[in-house]
Amino acid sequence: MNVIANLFNMTFFWLILLFVFVIIEALTVHIVSIWFALGSLCSIIASTLGAPIWAQAIIFAAVSAAAIILTRPLVKKFILPKNTPTNFEQIIGQSAIVCEEINNTEATGAIKINGIEWTARSDDGKTIPEGSSVSVVKIEGVKAIVSQTEL
Predict the structure, then answer these.
(1) Please, is 149 exposed, middle or buried when counting C-beta atoms within 10 Å of its C-beta (0-12, 13-18, 19+)?
(2) Which position has the higher pLDDT, 55 or 90?
(3) What DSSP designation does 32 have?
(4) What angle do CA 19, 69, 42 make, to 5 degrees?
(5) 133 - beta bridge partners?
(6) What is the Cα–Cα distance from 39 to 145, expressed in whole angstroms?
(7) Does the structure show a pLDDT above 50 at 147?
(8) Bridge partners, 145 (sequence order)
(9) Which of 32, 81, 114, 146 has an alpha carbon 20 to 30 Å from 136's alpha carbon atom?
């Protein structure tokens, strides 16, 4: 009778863990506990087949670890966001022509690069006259931060 009670208790324990992991998974945006739910499910099966508690624990740990290791590449490929460069990242380091005098004090200035006009500011605070050649150092918000280049 003690063996049957123990078997029932462990099956119930693994079942509770399974539900906890499934609820956690349902409440979160990212995949965080599905692997442990699979390990719990395998331990439920082992428990109902009469496996000892230590074997159930090993099965839980092994199945969870294997699931994490085997599915990690798929999760990284399909779930994690892909960083796609946009046009502002592509202009960093490129040369441009000042089409409106750049004056940080008056908050004026524009450059033209690849046929597109950008609001621009000087990286060192100096005024850069119209027609000058500049290099894009970085982007801050919607402004290109530029450095005057020597011709």
Answers:
(1) exposed
(2) 55
(3) -
(4) 35
(5) 97
(6) 53
(7) yes
(8) 121, 138
(9) 81
Whether the Cβ atoms of residue 59 and residue 67 lie closer than 8 Å to each other: no
> Can you give the C-alpha Rg of the chain in angstroms?
30
Who has greater pLDDT, 113 or 84? Answer: 113
| Angle (CA) 96 91 115, round 5° | 55
Written as one letter, the residue type at 4 is I
CA atoms within 13 A on the CB side of 5: 2
First to last CA, the chain: 93
Q: Which of 39, 139, 132 is nearest to 89 (CA)?
A: 139
What's the pLDDT at 148? 87
Query: For residues 50 and 7, is the Cβ–Cβ distance under 8 A?
Result: yes
